Amino acid sequence: MNPYNLFINGQDVAPASGNYFDVLNPSNEQLYAKVAQANSADVEQAINIAKSGYKTWSKAAPKVREAALLKAADLIEQQGMARLLDILIDESGSAISKARFEILYTVDLLRTAAGEARRLYGDTFPNDNPDRISMVLRHPLGVVAVVSPYNAPLALLTKMVAFPLAAGNSVVIKPSEETPVIALEFAKMLVEAGVPSEVIHVVTGFGLECGAPLVEHQDIDCIALTGSTQTGQHIGGVAMKRMVKAQLELGGKSAALVLPDVDPKKAAAIVAQGIFTHGGQICMANSRVIVHSDIYQDFIEALKAEAESLQVGDLRDDNTIYGPLINRNAVEKIQQHVDSAVAAGATILTGGSVKSGLIYQPTVLVDSPNTCSAWTEESFGPLTNVVKADSLEQAIDIANDSKFGLSASVLTKNMNWAMTAVRGIDAGSVHVGMHSFQSNALAPIGGSKLSGVGRSGGAYSTEEFTDVKWVSIEVNESL
Any idea where the Aldehyde dehydrogenase domain is (predicted)? Predict the structure, then answer.
């Protein structure tokens, strides 16, 4: 097995330490790859080149940045499906249907970002002095540190890389140590498509040795993270200490409201998709379900049937909805959440244990107390909690009883009820007639409370990865 090296300045670079770490295939927990273990010396090298590359890339014409991103989209669409599909399946444990979606969404993100290269709009505003012009110019930030997650390791990485590049920034990527190979392959495809090698680099490794030297470096001008709230709180503190921008998309405990005018079976199918896709390893997954008492019993019976009918396991079967969780720690966390909820008075409607290996059964808890970890903490697995509400107002209050505020859904055909919920739920997005896990390359993805800071997608990413400068001009002949 040939090891994977760092990707710096368009080259495979051996780590300064000479050390490599093991990446396991979640499906069998066997060795998938050996990957370079970067340290501060490697990070320093990547940042220095990225800083130099920024000076040229930031001055490149919009059409140049646009062309490179569009070519990358074409390359992935035309050649990348086969090239990337196996990596997503074997490295991250993605079912083939989820892997295909992720690749196509990556193409969409690249094309959307390409359009943003021409949208670095400024502004003018009036001045009381008629001989003075005031304008606002928008400009890139510099070197962006990107810390990407393992759950959607291609699509979420793309969103954090493509938009900064479109705006004229350079990037240094530290991918999750669980899924570094897909990041290396993606960066190589961007360079192949025409992104200058000096402006995109990948340093692989662990938090203390690689991540910390990256985000704490004095030449990093912005930090983009998609990850846990705990990591986000730390990185946010690092950013504020140096007063640099940070775009943080963090954890969630998203609520789905099921109101009395919907078909319980149809609602259950939507909720099941919203929590069990990719084994619930999605920050927007509807892991709390609040059901009106009028249809509660019918709904939980339908949700139980949905969960028990799901096909899990074989990642290369189109009918499989999910396979293994990412690692043994993830499985143990889910089991702890289930056990503590049951000890506190919850009932297991279905599931509640490991099926095989790292595959955890689709699990539904009912009557979970709002103090147990299954209700309050992000489980990040195929586990949802169902509780009863006697009114819309009570359902909204229950939905807001969380330290997170990433996403929510409202299942109803009554638009008055829907808009009451939309206005009342404290979350970065609310989806009516759908589950809480939705993606759109143009949408402002992000959350409130401990779910993060900032928004990503389309023009909202442009806001995050650029800054504005006020310029005033005296136009008389006083000088």
Answer: 16-471
Tens digit of each residue's pLDDT (9 = 90 or more) over 116-174: 999 999 999 999 999 999 999 999 999 999 999 999 999 999 999 999 999 999 999 99
Q: Which of 91, 185, 249, 306 is catalytic?
A: 249
pLDDT at 298: 98
Residues 165 and 283 in one domain: no
249 is catalytic: yes
pTM: predicted TM-score of the whole model, two decimal places: 0.96
| Domain harbouring 266, CATH code | 3.40.309.10
In a domain, 438, yes or no: no
Average pLDDT over residues 320-327: 98
Looking at the domain assignment, is residue 479 inside a domain? Answer: no
Cα–Cα distance for residue pair 297/207, rounded to 1 Å: 46
* Segment 85-117, tens digit of pLDDT: 999 999 999 999 999 999 999 999 999 999 999
Q: What is the extent of the structural domain holding 239?
A: 6-250+451-470
What is the predicted pLDDT for the residue at 83? 87
- In a shared domain, residues 218 and 108: yes
Assess whether pLDDT exceeds 90 at residue 476: no
**Total count of domains within the chain:** 2
Asked whether residue 261 falls in the same domain as residue 118, the answer is no
442 is a domain residue: no
- The answer on pLDDT for 272 being more than 90 is yes
Question: What is the number of other CB atoms lying within 10 angstroms of the CB of residue 470?
Answer: 10
Contact 62, 70 (CB under 8 A): no
Neighbours of 21 (CB within 10 A): 16
Q: Please tell me the distance from the alpha carbon of residue 88 to that of residue 151, in angstroms, as a whole number.
A: 10
Same domain, 230 and 263: no
